[in-house]
C-alpha cells in the first residue's frame, strides 16, 4: 500500500503523516508573522517548514495548531487540519480547532469536584457542566513563546502560560508548557510539562480536527480508523461518563481492526446515539507502539497517533454544522473532521474508578511528562 503519512505524538502525542517520496529541501525554516493583538499582547503565527518543504503553522493564541500540510500519494500538498485564516475566526465561536485545551480537557460533571474535602466550583460552559477548562480555558489565552534552537537539532517551539490560582475555579498556580516539534519525518511531537504549588487536577490535550483528504474537503466517514483500545467509557445524555468501562468486542466501538468511521456510525447502539456519533473516550491498551491509525484511501494519506496517556477522545465532528469557515473560505461541515484528543478520562476528578490525574505534592512543584 502506497501512502503518505503524518505522526502525532502527544506528551507525548505524536502525529506521523506519511506519503510519497519527497525531495529534500535544504534547510529547516521558521518564520514569524503578526496575527493580531489581544489586550496589548501580540499574537503571532509561526510557520515551521521542515526539510521536506512541508509546513505547520501555530499561533500563540491558545498555542493553537492552525495548519498542517502534507503530501498525498502523488505528492500533492494539502492542509489536513481545521484552522482560520485570521485571529477573528478563533474569537468567534471556534470549536477548539487545533487549540490546547486545559486545565481540564473534556467534561467535569456540574463543574464541581473535591480535593481533601474542599469543594471547588468551576466556570460552567456546557449545559450544567464544565467543558475543556471553562469559557476562559487555555484555548483562549495568549501564551508566551520562545524558540529553542540548539545547534544540530530541530528547533523546538515552546509555549508557556502562567495560570493563576483559582483561574476558572481550579486551585493552584500552574505553569503550563507546551512544546511543538515538527521534524523531517513529518512527525508533529507535542510535549506537555506542568507544575503547580497546590493539590489540583489537570488534563491537557490538543484539539486538532483532521480530514486527510484536506480540511473542508467532504466528510470523514470514509476514513479508515484503527484504535488500539479494548474498552471505552460510556456516557449519559449530557456526555458525562457513567463510570463504567465497556468491552468494545461485538460493538461498533471495536476499532482494534481498521473500520471506516461511517461503517457502523448509524447503528442503533445506545451509546452511539447518546454520543450523537463517536464522541467517546477510548481506553487505550497502551501496549503498542502506535495507539491509533487513520488512513484515507483516495489521497493515500495515513496518520499515526502515539501517546503515553491512558485515553483518547475519538470525536468525529458531530457538532459541526458548516457555520465555521476556515482556510480558503472552506466550510467545516457536519462530520467533516475527526479529533483524537489524548487524555485522562473525562470527569476523572469525580470518578473513583478512573485513573487519577491529580497533582499532589503541594509546594514542591510536580513535573510530569506523561501520565502519573
Ligand atoms: C469535543 C467533545 C465534543 C464537543 C467538542 C467541541 O472534545 O468531545 O462533545 O464538545 O469537543 O465542540
Please write out the topology.
Blueprint lengths: L4 E6 L2 E6 L10 E10 L2 E9 L5 E5 L4 E8 L5 E3 L7 H5 L8 E2 L5 E2 L3 E4 L2 E4 L8 E2 L12 E5 L7 E8 L10 E9 L5 E9 L3 E2 L3 E2 L2 E2 L13 E4 L1 E5 L12 E2 L11 E2 L9 H5 L4 E6 L7 E5 L4 E5 L5 E5 L22 E6 L14 E2 L13
Poorly predicted sequence stretches spanning 5 or more consecutive residues: 8-12, 360-372
Query: β content, as a range?
Result: 35-45%
Structural class category: mainly beta
Q: How many helical elements?
A: 2
Helix content: under 10%
Q: Residue-averaged pLDDT, rounded?
A: 89
Largest sheet: 6 strands, mixed
Number of strands: 29
Gyration radius over CA: 19 Å
Assign an overall shape. globular
Q: Give the N-terminus to C-terminus distance in angstroms.
A: 38 Å
Assembly status: single chain
